[in-house]
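Researcher: Here's a chain I'd like modeled. Treat it as a single chain, no partners, no ligands.
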Amino acid sequence: MQLRYNFRVYPDAVQREALARAFGCARVVFNDGLRARQAAREHGLPRLSDRELSKRVITEAKKAESRAWLGEVSAVVLQQALADLNTAYRNFFNSLSGKRKGRKAAAPRFRSRKDNRQAIRFTTNARFKVLDNGRLRLPKVGDLAVRWSRTLPVTPSSVTIVKDASGRYFASFVVITTDEPLPPLNAEVGIDLGLTHFAVLSDGTKIAGPKFLRRAARKLKRLQQDLSRKQRGSNNRKRAVVKVARAHAKVADTRRDWQHKLSTAIIRDNQAVYVEDLCVAGLGRTRLAKSVHDAGWASFTAMLEYKAARHGRTFAKINRFAPTSQTCSACGRIDGPKSLSVRSWACPCGAAHDRDVNAAINILAAGRAERLNACVRRAGHRAATGLSRGRPR
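Model: Modeled as a single isolated chain. Structure tokens:
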């Protein structure tokens, strides 16, 4: 499994200048490659191969006076910029053809030096190295001071240097690790995600949502007001933009840390975890959009999914259209739609339900049923293909 390990880095003034030069060169190569492919398409010419594109926008460009400064940065950074362009095109065409699931990917666009986020990538070909003194050596940049919060499990295959909107620098290492199964358990849990409580578990546990964005709303409002009063293009406005970005980064970091701790605890204590497949994009277009984005359901379920895969746990999403809030978990009777203001209800069978706990119990039951059906389908497939009882295919 591929994992990313992010660490804060602290470049000095000379190294910041070198990184800025590398960011700019990677951006120019990406834009030149995109412009060349667009021009070829407009003139009805065949698609430029990766080799021809690299030769045109890197090798030959370095010989021209207008692009001679491309030789001041590592060639691997420039090659990875073209690799990002190829990935963007591949995602776009796969999205058009239906091979790529999820939301439609847009066509590649030109990168701007005014983008809030800048990034470059070094692979093993660049010969980056983590030194014995803890510094990160990058070609044509120098030895960066790194704040190590933990050790890397194996030698990384690549490192991405990221400068975020608040001006912070990070080193993101990609490592290939083996799975670390946890001891098997008998416990299983269904999770109902919501706004009244962030998560309600099928065992009755209710986890309150910290609402990090709401708590920081007053400070963010003041900073946004200060920003709106600054003249466009002035240095004061640039500093105000950084202050706003830092405030938002603090909210995002706090939310991410809290979600990591919660997801780790749930995966550690349960053998199987089931959640509802919520349409977060659709809910983000309603009047509850701010609260939905503040909750961060998508990132939380993504954490549960990859941690379950890494530690040998089962994770599954049930159908979002399943009437979990309308079904009695005791007798299975569907009692009909209920407004969000109804937080508890009684079934004619005599069972009294808390709306969220009842939904979590139904999510657990639906997840177990789906898992059982999947096992039956796999067994039937093995029997049909002659794989059962050691028979040859």
